[in-house]
Amino acid sequence: MKINENYKNLNESYLFSTISRRVKDFKAAHPNADVISLGIGDVTLPVCPHVIDAMVTATYDLGAIETFHGYGDEQGYTFLRTAIAKYYAKKHVQIDQSEIFIGDGAKSDLGNILDIFSTDNIVLIPNPVYPVYVDTNLMAGRKIIFANGSIENNFLPMPDPAVHADIIYLCSPNNPTGAVYTHAQLKTWVNYAIANNAVILFDSAYEAFIHDKTLPTSIYQIPNAKKCAIEFCSLSKTAGFTGVRCGYTIVPNELGHLNKMWLRRQTTKFNGVSYIVQRGATAVFNNFSPCKKNIARYMENAKLISATLTKLGIWHTGGKNAPYIWLKCPNGMTSWQFFDYLLEKHNIVGTPGIGFGLDGYFRFTAFATRKNTIRALKRLES
Ligand code: MLT
Hints:
This protein is about 35% helix and about 15% strand. The chain is α/β, with parallel strands linked by helices. It folds into two domains: about 5-45 and about 290-380, Aspartate Aminotransferase, domain 1; about 50-285, 3-Layer(aba) Sandwich (Aspartate Aminotransferase, domain 2), CATH 3.40.640. The strands form three sheets. Strands 2-8-7-6-5-3-4 form a seven-stranded mixed beta sheet, sandwiched between helices. Strands 9-10-13-12 form a four-stranded antiparallel beta sheet. Strands 1-11 form a two-stranded parallel ribbon. Helix 5 links the parallel strand 3 (about 120-125) and strand 4. Helix 3 (about 80-90) runs parallel beside helix 8 and helix 9 packs parallel to helix 11.
């Protein structure tokens, strides 16, 4: 037996596992500490009542012979794919049902999609970004190059025409910076991808948080994007599904073999998302406004966090069209130093920027409860 040697190039554990271990150790040593998490982007508001109702009804469907469901349709049930296609139609994007694949969340599909690409490809990843893109490519031993985000480019790096890439990751709104590409910027990326015969893997997990109507919420709002882009989205943050698990991936038919290859991959290695969850997800798309209210509530948290950081004179960005606030660690601290400082002195958990690829920065999430957000901010102010 030979192991996959590429795993030796990974950090010992996944970013959020490392954080949770450090918090656990801290709590074990300080059992009375009242720790508040503004760390992992995990939702706190309950799933909307109409979505729960749909899942309860679906549960009873499984208990009656007339409505029982066994294995589902390969790409996901038609009722859910129809609802998603309608959601895109409202964005003026036409998606055919054959292009939609239901999965258990964006993270799995973003990693699994790599099965259909050769390990010879050069991968271009913006930095800082969601660590899953780097880790999954390290596992496969692909060559990775970076497009660096900075204060100067508003954390929205653009392609260098002199540099070739085959697989390009874009995350907009970006996790962790909250930066959102404009139509013009995405057009430049689409043109670059087409010129390089490359594919864009577009992570739109936070699209529902985009408030500014002038900003694109899908890469397919950009002309020709269907010729070069696969889009990944999730209901985790949009509908409070971090524990329920449902997402979808769009592989346009214009991408030729890729659609059929992904179908082949999924039908071989994946048996779909449960009927109950797909009924719940359908309810989300068929009546979006209750979910929107929850999103608005999180975005009020983001405003509060931003206001406190402004008061404290701490440079930060994000939080306007995304549930994340990205800040510069004060007093020249490294991101793990700031993590320790916040945890030990204020019992607040955040996410170190180095975990996303950039030291000296830090991320707060707006997903905590209102009460805990306010309590954490009071501690910071004091
Ligand atoms: C995050 O905090 O970045 C996300 O919750 C992680 C994820 O969605 O997997």
